[in-house]
From TrEMBL:
Cofactor names: FAD
Enzyme's top EC category: oxidoreductase
SUPFAM superfamilies listed in its UniProt record: FAD/NAD(P)-binding domain, FAD/NAD-linked reductases, dimerisation (C-terminal) domain
Keyword tRNA-binding: no
Signal peptide residues on this chain, from the entry's feature table: none
Keyword Oxidoreductase: yes
GO molecular function: ferredoxin-NADP+ reductase activity; oxidoreductase activity, acting on NAD(P)H
Keywords for the protein's UniProt record, in alphabetical order: FAD, Flavoprotein, Oxidoreductase
Name of the protein: Ferredoxin--NAD(P)(+) reductase fdr
Gene name in the database record: fdr
Amino acid sequence: MYELQVTSSEGVNEVDTGSDTSPDSGAGSGSDKGIVIVGGGLAAARTAEQLRRAGYAGRLTIVSDEVHLPYDRPPLSKEVLRKEVDDVALKPREWYDEKDITLRLGSAATGLDTVAQTLTLADGTVLGYDELVIATGLVPRRIPTFPDIEGIRVLRSYDECMALRTHASAATRAVVVGGGFIGCEVAASLRGLGVAVVLVEPQPTPLASVLGEQIGQLVARMHRDEGVDVRTGMGVAEVRGDGHVDTVVLTDGTELQADLVVVGIGSHPATGWLDGSGVKVDNGVICDEAGRTSAPNVWALGDVASWRDPMGHQVRVEHWSNVADQARVVVPAMLGREAPSNVVVPYFWSDQYDVKIQCLGEPHATDIVHLVEDDGRRFLAYYERDGVLVGVVGGAMPGKVMKVRSKIAAGAPISEVLESPESG
Ligand SMILES: Cc1cc2nc3c(=O)[nH]c(=O)nc-3n(C[C@H](O)[C@H](O)[C@H](O)COP(=O)(O)OP(=O)(O)OC[C@H]3O[C@@H](n4cnc5c(N)ncnc54)[C@H](O)[C@@H]3O)c2cc1C
């Protein structure tokens, strides 16, 4: 559902393989090649920040195909789309200067040689590295059968958000394709802008594949209460228009008038530039539990990375707080130090209308869901797997969600929260 913006270079163009050619000069050795981070999002910024905080004083370079300073994506489907906020940079430019971090913006990485330890950029620049960090995030999925006409948008980047925002200001009727988090948030923001919205989701409810149908029904109800026409169990068969979208045909044959279509059907890891590098990729860059890839001195984190979990499963997470959690592990590992051993309970949130949906732990659609509170828009549900509390999901219930963090971390029996939900 997201799109990468490959933009013109504002970076430098020289060939730069670093003056230290010693093959074994490590990250902490003060080599001139230093650490190169590929990607200009949260994972890149957090990794750079952690490296400097950890005392790494070597050369540090961020390579991003976007022209913008690393920025925060969650506001794109919320405040930025609703025109409440414009500046979402994670750090001001001066911060990178102060920390002596070189930004190569508008420079897409196109190839990686893990033997020579060089990174090639789209403009032909070759950078040497001692350690390389892959933080290239995701590419939004599109629907190839849709025509190439105005008014069809995806949302991943700032530039995409601005284009969508411009379309939204002129739009009166939008169809949002996909009822995942991005689709639901975009639907809510478009309603806030006064646009009539039809939300189309092939599953029985929005968010069904993530949180299960029970919670999905609550979310659908909330959207319907806000005037969204939620159509589930179907997809979009065709989009029509002469130069600009005017009609969307659903798979049940319904024809909808629309001047905006937002495709929110998920994303895939941005790993095309790693083809031929030998870095193992399988639904993301395959990593161990500390972010080490299959190639020496190459690491990965964030949305693009599939880390091994304590059970030995490869897991790729597409949520904001996971990025900082991983940066706190990958940086000490890269510097040859002990990684923190505390148990991290995964967390994510989604803002839709005035409701903050918060998820703690690893709720799954196939878990047993105990809906213990449902007061219209406020709800609380515990997720049970094999008798154990594995997650909690709340709508506008921040205190009650956070209260069970320690129980989820401890793998407490579900009975502990069901018998006395107030005690947490
Ligand atoms: C619209 C939106 C709303 C979200 N809302 C929430 C939310 O409410 N809650 C939540 O928990 N999470 C949310 N997320 C998820 C969260 O933002 C991501 O988990 C986070 O941004 C991941 O950071 P990242 O650095 O791994 O990837 P990204 O932020 O995607 O950064 C990757 C960067 O790498 C660049 N890049 C890609 N390929 C190359 C290349 N070949 N060369 C150079 N650079 C390259 C990209 O252009 C991009 O700048 C949202 C995401 C989006 C898109």
